[in-house]
Specification:
The chain is α/β, with parallel strands linked by helices. The chain contains 21 helices and 7 strands. A hairpin with a 2-residue loop joins strand 1 and strand 2.
């Protein structure tokens, strides 16, 4: 503030000297210095500070998933423009820089390449011709970035929003993203073999053999409910309100039921066509049989992940336990758990699972040996609305707050045990070296044999292929 006042005084004195007037005439009529027209609230507010204040503003309420998405956008924007950049100095070109980076930036670039800046990731993706994130995802980043400036304008930190209107044009119209079933397709579905005896079912002359196959498409047709909402219906999700049977769409962590958003929880009247199709009779039979689910034959998809650290270890015990737990498919590999890098089966499992699925492991350390890796994996599963369970630690899951707490605690313990194990190993090696007992692993390359092959006229590359070793090892053996 002092420098601003000094600069203003200097400018006014210079103006007075050039105009041949007294400096006092260039002052405010009250005799006070006229300060530049700048908001006091914006002085000293950096881009990083503004993001922090925006995300912690008590006037805004965000879900855990939304907060995570905004944090991701903040990290990218701060990395591209600079954490210490003054908020009121961010201009249109800075915002375009963010947009142009998003245009080529691949999804999950940090998980793909580790600690890398967005600019470097964009350059690398362009060079390696890796597909960028979807246009809707990139525009979502820009929308969140723009919302920061909308908030800053209200807080009088900036005068305008330089990010307004910046987005990538999407060649696919919104109405074409998810095409509805055509009349021909609907006729093909509802005149198929499943509905061959629908008249007899409606007259009560026949019971439905496969309730889920029969009723799930009908409910979707006459209610507009999502497939996941229909398939997870429980017997207590049908109620009679003022004589009208209704579906109650709600989340229930105890039963593993999820909804897309909080606004998705609602009450849907049951169409009379479903009543005519004897849906309520099926509901009563399920209740009489003390079934919890309306479609007991449908089981949520379960997938397993198994891992051992070395090729000499067996995956059989883990595989048997996962199959016994109901896993339809088991992703297994023999790789170290110290990092998630190069664990192809883990990456495939995380890409394969989808909403309402469950990923199961036998022990927590089979998934990750560091708290950071564990949280990153769980975070990704949570984003995809995939449940997580651990067989040997039954209280560890993502369906309850207690399960998530246990997950964090056991993850920290696993990381601690891994560090202690490593420290003891290093201490033992150091002690063995002092005693002259430690000589490392046995020599796997015979220099005599390498030299003999070389003497027979064989080249280094041919020797490497013959002995199944690297060429660098051949050169070292020849130089020994």
């Amino acid at each position: 503030m002092a420098r601003m006042v000094a600069l203003d005084l200097e400018n006014r004195f210079q103006f007075a000297r050039d105009a041949g007037t007294q400096p006092s005439e260039a002052m405010h009529p009250t005799g006070k210095v006229a300060l530049p027209a700048i908001s006091r609230a914006s002085l000293g507010v950096t881009l990083s500070d503004a993001w922090q204040r925006y995300l912690s503003d008590p006037a805004s309420s965000r879900s855990e998933k939304s907060a995570l998405a905004y944090t991701t956008v903040r990290n990218l924007v701060v990395a591209l423009i600079g954490a210490d950049t003054q908020m009121d100095s961010v201009d249109r070109q800075d915002c375009r820089k963010v947009l142009e980076t998003l245009r080529v930036l691949p999804r999950n670039y940090e998980k793909r390449w580790g600690e890398i800046t967005p600019a470097a990731a964009a350059t690398r993706a362009k060079h390696e011709k890796i597909d960028p994130m979807s246009i809707s995802n990139a525009n979502g980043y820009m929308q969140k970035f723009s919302s920061l400036f909308n908030w800053a304008v209200k807080e009088e930190l900036v005068a305008r929003n330089p990010c307004r209107g910046l987005r990538i044009a999407d060649p696919v119209a919104d109405r074409d993203r998810r095409l509805p079933f055509s009349t021909v397709q609907l006729e093909a579905i509802f005149t198929g073999s499943v509905y061959a005896n629908v008249g007899e079912v409606a007259r009560g002359q026949r019971e439905v053999e496969h309730a889920a196959r029969f009723y799930v498409p009908l409910i979707a047709l006459f209610s507009g409910m999502r497939q996941n909402e229909i398939c997870q219906l429980a017997t207590n999700d049908i109620v009679i309100l003022d004589g009208v049977p209704c579906f109650v769409i709600k989340a229930d962590t105890a039963q593993g039921k999820r909804v897309k958003t909080a606004a998705s929880q609602r009450i849907v009247p049951i169409h009379r066509a479903l009543v005519s199709a004897r849906l309520l009779d099926h509901w009563q039979r399920c209740r009489s049989g003390r079934e919890l689910r309306l479609w007991p034959e449908l089981r949520p998809d379960r997938f397993g992940y198994a891992r051992v650290s070395s090729s000499g270890q067996s995956l059989d015990i883990q595989h048997e336990a996962l199959v016994a737990a109901g896993c339809e498919k088991v992703f297994a590999e023999k790789m170290s758990g110290r990092s998630t890098k190069d664990r192809d089966q883990l990456a495939e499992a995380l890409d394969f699972v989808r909403e309402s699925d469950t990923l199961i492991i036998t022990r927590l350390d089979r998934l990750a040996r560091s708290v950071g890796d564990l949280h990153n994996i769980i975070e990704r599963l949570t984003e995809k609305k995939v449940a997580f369970k651990c067989i040997s630690q039954s209280g560890v899951d993502t369906d309850s707050s207690t399960g998530r707490l246990m997950l964090a605690i056991l993850g920290a313990v696993a990381a601690f045990e891994n560090d202690i194990r490593r420290e003891r190993q290093l201490e033992g090696i150091a002690k063995a070296k002092l005693a002259g007992k430690y000589r490392g692993r046995p020599v796997s390359i015979d220099p005599v044999k390498v030299k003999a092959l070389r003497a027979d006229g064989m080249g280094p590359a041919a020797i490497a292929r013959e002995l199944k070793i690297g060429r660098a090892s051949v050169y070292r053996a020849l130089a020994a």
